[in-house]
Design a protein that fits this description.
Radius of gyration: 15 Å
Largest sheet: 5 strands, parallel
CATH topology: Rossmann fold
CATH class: Alpha Beta
Number of domains: 1
CATH superfamily: HUPs
Shape: globular
Strand order of the largest sheet: 5-2-1-6-7
Number of strands: 7
Number of helices: 4
């Protein structure tokens, strides 16, 4: 689906990315897809390992992200995005975001906070998505760096 994809993981950094992506989709009158990935376990040969509780956890994750997206949407003062869809998948976050970028105009992600290593200004997921995405990627910095 063309439009903007925002990766959300429940952190404060991803909330900032969601807010920015929501406003950007509204200004551009584009659809917004809010994507959350319930992380999979890496199997012995590098594939996804599925456990009996993964489906339920993915559904609960989607419900929580839907609630967060609804809150951000309700808080918009001006225009609204053309549409907002929330989806949750079970897999590897980088792989799922890169695959989703094939059909997107833009991917938006939050940056991790600066920890003890100042060179690590972008989280490993965001850094890998930037390198492998099929469309432009916007990284939203934490409020104290924005």
């Amino acid at each position: 689906m063309p439009g903007i994809i925002v990766g959300v993981d429940g952190s404060g950094h991803s909330r900032l990315a969601l807010e920015w992506a929501m406003e950007e989709a509204a200004v551009r009158q584009m659809p917004l897809r809010v994507l959350t990935v319930h992380p999979a376990i890496v199997g012995y040969f590098g594939g996804v390992v599925t456990t009996p509780g993964d489906l339920e956890l993915t559904e609960r994750t989607q419900a929580a992200v839907k609630k967060e997206a609804d809150e951000v949407l309700a808080g918009l003062d001006g225009p609204h995005p053309e549409s907002v869809t929330v989806s949750a998948v079970h897999g590897f976050p980088v792989e799922e975001l890169v695959n989703a970028s094939k059909d997107a105009d833009m991917v938006v992600l939050g940056s991790r906070g600066v920890g003890g290593f100042t060179r690590m200004l972008v989280g490993s997921t965001a850094g890998q998505v930037v390198q492998h995405a099929h469309c432009p990627v916007v990284i939203i910095p934490p409020e104290d760096r924005g």
